[in-house]
Amino acid sequence: MKAIQEATASEPLTLDEEYENQQSWRASHDKLTFIVCEPLSRADLASSAVRANVVDADDKMRGDINFFMYRDDPDGDQEDGDGDGDGDGDGDEQAPTNSQTRLRGEIDVMIAEKGHWRRGYGSASVAALLVYIRKNLRRIIDEYAAGEGIQERQPQMAGLMAKIQEANAGSRALFQKLGFKQTGEVNYFGEVMMVMSWEEAERLVDGWLCSGGEVCREVGYEM
């Protein structure tokens, strides 16, 4: 448990705090959370829906993956690439108009048991999340904008980031393999920030989708 807390920079919660936390996240407009489970059986893979407490029974759960939305701060902690606050330093990001809010998404993935580390759960989860965001971006941004009271032009996604403990070599390698790059130095909390422009993320996902393989598929969830 201590190793998980250190790897995820998290603190232990009481049961009441955990329930309150889960209820808050479910209703939040700026967060997405998914449970990472054991891969489906061949029979389940062919189905258009999965059943609750079967594919996600306690013994099938492996961890979780979260996506947090923020207003991008080009002069603050969420800067990209070369540290000059203009994205990832390669001129790839579109310049928004003065009335357009820029957003940045943070990815946080946790595989709970050490015995399940380095077995592909983390990389598969991040890949599936990227595909989900790519396909549902407009709906995700609309929900965020409504919750924040943003009434000007629809916000624009600037990029993605992940904050990782410097000692967590596995997670750093996972994001590097996907194309994320470290920006800046280790912060006060012992974390490094890894970033990717949204245009790079789109190209990555579109390449997967055009390759003919199936990275992930959305199915029904039957109670």
UniProtKB/TrEMBL annotation:
<feature type="region of interest" description="Disordered">
    <location>
        <begin position="68"/>
        <end position="103"/>
    </location>
</feature>
<dbReference type="Pfam" id="PF13302">
    <property type="entry name" value="Acetyltransf_3"/>
</dbReference>
<protein>
    <recommendedName>
        <fullName>N-acetyltransferase domain-containing protein</fullName>
    </recommendedName>
</protein>
<dbReference type="InterPro" id="IPR016181">
    <property type="entry name" value="Acyl_CoA_acyltransferase"/>
</dbReference>
<feature type="domain" description="N-acetyltransferase">
    <location>
        <begin position="57"/>
        <end position="181"/>
    </location>
</feature>
<dbReference type="InterPro" id="IPR039135">
    <property type="entry name" value="NAT9-like"/>
</dbReference>
<dbReference type="InterPro" id="IPR000182">
    <property type="entry name" value="GNAT_dom"/>
</dbReference>
<dbReference type="GO" id="GO:0008080">
    <property type="term" value="F:N-acetyltransferase activity"/>
</dbReference>
<keyword id="KW-0012">Acyltransferase</keyword>
<feature type="compositionally biased region" description="Acidic residues">
    <location>
        <begin position="74"/>
        <end position="93"/>
    </location>
</feature>
<comment type="similarity">
    <text>Belongs to the acetyltransferase family. GNAT subfamily.</text>
</comment>
<keyword id="KW-0808">Transferase</keyword>
